Task: inverse folding
């Protein structure tokens, strides 16, 4: 699936700035409706290292009221979190009614990094597909709008971005040994991602695979998907007697 994604989509700088203003204004208005109607919204990002997750999140949130959203950067579980089921730390970060929560990495780490790096046993990550589907069904049935993104870039583009970060003193913090080590396991992560889509892209919670070779295109596309999902969620909420 991922190797067949068309990565040629581009957008000019002028059109990008025009559409960014439009979609950010749309999101500002929707945020007020989300708060007024008590709609919880959850957006989660997965994808290759350096695929533009952070840049996309920034463009979605930069004009919003900061009191109405939280961004959760997800890394390895801490000492306390390891005492609980792996989903526990995500339950505790889900959005309240009227709030937006954005996860930079997510519960899918169980079937991606934990699988590939062997932090989880085979029976644990195999079982996780059903656990994750049940978890997502639960929060959606509870009224939460859930949007799932995978940011897709080519291996060559990833290398270009890695080198760019390595040589930029203002961005060197964005690149580290883990990124290079993960890149060496590209094929293993690709296999894990493909199985993840097959097992967890459901009717009620589909994956949105975003061509991210062009950062401007990806930022606009993700913002539009989020806005449309919120509009659909508000429509369902208001239609429910």
Result:
């Amino acid at each position: 699936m991922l190797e067949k994604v068309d990565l040629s989509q581009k957008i000019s700088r002028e059109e990008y700035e025009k559409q960014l203003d439009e979609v950010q204004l749309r999101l500002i208005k929707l945020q007020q409706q989300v708060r007024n109607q008590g709609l919880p919204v959850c957006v989660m990002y997965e994808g290759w290292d350096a695929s533009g997750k952070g840049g996309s999140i920034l463009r979605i949130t930069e004009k919003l009221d900061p009191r109405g959203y939280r961004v959760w950067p997800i890394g390895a579980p801490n000492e306390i979190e390891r005492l609980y089921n792996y989903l526990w730390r995500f339950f505790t970060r889900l959005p309240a009614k009227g709030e937006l929560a954005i996860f930079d990495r997510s519960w899918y780490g169980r079937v991606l990094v934990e699988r590939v790096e062997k932090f989880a046993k085979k029976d644990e990550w195999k079982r996780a597909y059903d656990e994750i589907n049940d978890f997502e069904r639960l929060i959606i049935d509870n009224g939460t709008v859930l949007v799932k993104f995978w940011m897709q870039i080519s291996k060559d583009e990833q290398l270009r971005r890695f080198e760019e970060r390595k040589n930029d003193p203002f961005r060197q913090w964005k690149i580290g040994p883990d990124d290079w080590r993960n890149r060496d396991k590209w094929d293993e992560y690709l296999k894990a991602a493909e199985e993840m889509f097959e097992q967890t892209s459901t009717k009620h919670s589909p994956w949105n695979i975003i061509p991210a070779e062009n950062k401007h295109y990806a930022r606009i596309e993700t913002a539009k998907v989020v806005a449309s999902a919120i509009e659909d969620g508000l429509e369902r909420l208001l239609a429910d007697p």
